[in-house]
Amino acid sequence: MKGKRPLESQIILTQLMGPTNANTLGNVHGGLIMKLCDEAGGMAATKHARHPAVTVTVDSMNFHSPVHIGEIMTVKAEVTWVGRTSMETRVVVTAENVISGEVTHTNTAYFVYVALDETGRPVAVPPLILETDIEKDRFARAAERQAIRLKRLQQDKL
């Protein structure tokens, strides 16, 4: 199976945030941000695997700063690690003030997906081709997170 580079499956979603996306403080709902992160991550995983990918785990979802009404929110997802049938995606959210042009990093999240065949069973995914030091570092950190996730999974079964 031919490998793929992270950029080959990168997904970028961009949307202007309006009043219907926000709470009474003018901040975009965290649930909406999580939903868009999961969608972008799922699309990146599906694009990498060329099979439907379903969410297995939300490893982490960090909120660094709010997204406000009137800002352009960009959600960027890419595959950082692959196993036999599963993939981790790193999702970064930024908010751009359209008047000042200032861009703020608002969220970082890691999701895990599994690729499914036409019968709904897990299917092998292509390896990840790592070319840059950043990609190699992200892969190594993702492998560490995967080991922790597997340990947690075993503990959850007790």
From TrEMBL:
InterPro entries: Cytosol_ACT (IPR040170), HOTDOG_ACOT (IPR033120), HotDog_dom_sf (IPR029069), Thioestr_dom (IPR006683). The keyword Hydrolase applies. The keyword Transcription does not apply. Keywords: Hydrolase. GO terms for cellular component: cytosol. Residues 7-119 form the HotDog ACOT-type domain. GO terms for molecular function: long-chain fatty acyl-CoA hydrolase activity. One of its GO terms (biological process) is acyl-CoA metabolic process. This is HotDog ACOT-type domain-containing protein. It comes from hydrothermal vent metagenome.
